[in-house]
Design a protein that fits this description.
With 405 residues, this protein is of the alpha/beta class. Helices cover 28% and strands 21% of the residues. It is built from 15 helices and 19 strands. The strands form four sheets. Strands 3, 5, 6, 9, 10, 17, 18 and 19 form an eight-stranded mixed β-sheet that branches. A six-stranded parallel β-sheet has the order 13-12-11-14-15-16, with helices on both faces. A three-stranded antiparallel β-sheet has the order 2-1-4, with helices on one face. It binds zinc ion (2 copies). One zinc ion is lined by residues 89-90, 92-93, 95-96, 104-106.
Length: 405
């Protein structure tokens, strides 16, 4: 099959690789119909994530058709159309049983690496380094899905791929970020970062009853999407003092909750840096927690700071005193995707949200290496790229990017 393989910093290639096979009774093989490039894939592309091996297949946002199942699976059949969570979870361990799916104790065969850094390992992830399991990802024609009986969610007929694909990651991630704010009637929610996760956090905050959402970024395309699709008030941090502006627009109180959807540029995974790469982590930490510091500083007393953005290791100059003085609540962590698949699918079916609004680029899998470049550079108003394995490359059919906005 064809797959997008990682070879090092800024080096991803489409290659022919062996087709995946059933290895365990609860595996399924999925023929990918649509996948996506995620902001957290850029950490791999930028070479920040340790324990990558040349030839690793990337991609953790994907969906498709079941073409093979292991003997242990009774709730899926060949031909089913499914979306798969980016977190891999067994469904049976202490954590899965408590709905803490991204903490699954059984899905990371390389957990000892993460334990050395964090004390305990999070779940395995698709296409995201060997310390998170070394699972092949879904920017490919086929993928093996472990524990498919609890992960893969069947999609009813009539819903196009683009409406449901983001159940795999960014919609639940944005939704959990908003849910973590415990939004009350009349609340103002401020969202730092208007990438795809920020966009879903904005929509979700309104779905959960926020009176007003204020979106903060400096990318005009993202701010436009936040205003037009998300109905958020927007602040460009190049033009205004965020703290002053937020205070002014909330009658001097500050926002009731603040969502940091910046992190390492995206929602990503929890292992962007490990202990023996502390130097790299600290280098990142010099500017990246800026949004988080600002959120803590700006949040009203007794408010909530919710962090879907990724923080890998150590934060420099973390204003813990301000958080203590104001009695803030912190909520964060890798998304428990499995928990949200069904309820968010129902919202899509009820037309409460159409997640495809975030797509700006549609390209063939063959053109994925070029799409990484475009996405990385935020060129051509790029916010979200979806990949279609079945489509011919732009170079062969003469078509450019299919633009949605
Ligand atoms: Zn993602
Ligand atoms: Zn588990």
């Amino acid at each position: 099959m064809k797959a997008l393989c990682w070879y090092g910093k800024y080096d991803v290639r489409i290659e022919q690789v062996p087709d995946p096979e059933i290895l365990n009774p609860r595996d399924a093989i999925i023929k990918i119909t649509t996948s996506a490039i995620c902001g957290s894939d850029l950490h791999l592309y930028d070479g920040y994530i340790p324990t990558m091996v040349k030839g690793d297949i990337l991609g953790h946002e994907f969906m498709g058709e079941v073409v093979d199942i292991g003997k242990g699976i009774t709730n899926l059949k060949i031909g089913d159309r499914v979306v798969v969570p980016f977190t891999i979870a067994c469904g049976k361990c202490f954590f899965c049983q408590r709905g803490l799916w991204s903490s699954c104790d059984n899905s990371n065969p390389n957990s000892h690496i993460a334990e050395a850094v964090y004390g305990f390992s999070p779940s395995g992830l698709f296409g995201y380094s060997h310390m998170l399991g070394g699972y092949a990802g879904g920017q490919a024609e086929y993928v093996r899905v472990p524990y498919a009986d609890v992960g893969a969610t069947k999609i009813p007929e009539g819903l196009p791929d683009e409406k449901v694909l983001f159940l795999s990651d960014i919609f639940p991630t944005g939704y959990m970020a908003a849910e973590n704010c415990n939004i009350q009637r009349g609340d103002t929610v401020a969202v730092w970062g208007c990438g795809p996760v920020g966009q879903f956090a904005i929509k979700s905050a309104y779905l959960l009853g926020a009176e007003r959402v204020i979106a903060i970024d400096d990318n005009p395309d993202r701010l436009r999407m936040a205003a037009e699709d998300g109905k958020a008030c927007t602040i460009n941090f190049d033009d205004e003092d965020i703290y002053e502006k937020l205070k002014h627009t909330t009658g001097g109180l500050g926002p009731d909750s603040c969502i940091d959807a910046v992190g390492l540029e995206a929602h990503g995974t929890s292992l962007d840096a490990i202990y023996d790469q502390a130097k790299a982590a600290l280098m990142l930490a010099t500017d990246r927690p800026h949004a988080l510091r600002q959120a803590i500083h700006s949040c009203r007393k007794g408010g909530t700071v919710s962090v879907p953005g990724v923080y890998g290791a150590f934060l420099d100059k973390f204003p813990f005193g301000a958080a203590f003085a104001k009695g803030l609540t912190f909520k964060m962590g890798q998304t428990h995707v499995h928990k949200y698949m069904q309820p968010l699918l129902e919202m899509i079916q009820l037309d409460q949200i159409d997640p495809s609004f975030v797509i700006t680029h549609r390209v063939s899998l063959d053109d994925a290496p070029e799409a990484y470049k475009t996405f990385k550079a935020q060129k051509d108003n790029c916010i979200k790229v979806v990949l279609k394995p079945g489509q011919p490359a732009a170079s062969s059919n003469g078509n450019g990017h299919g633009r949605a906005h």
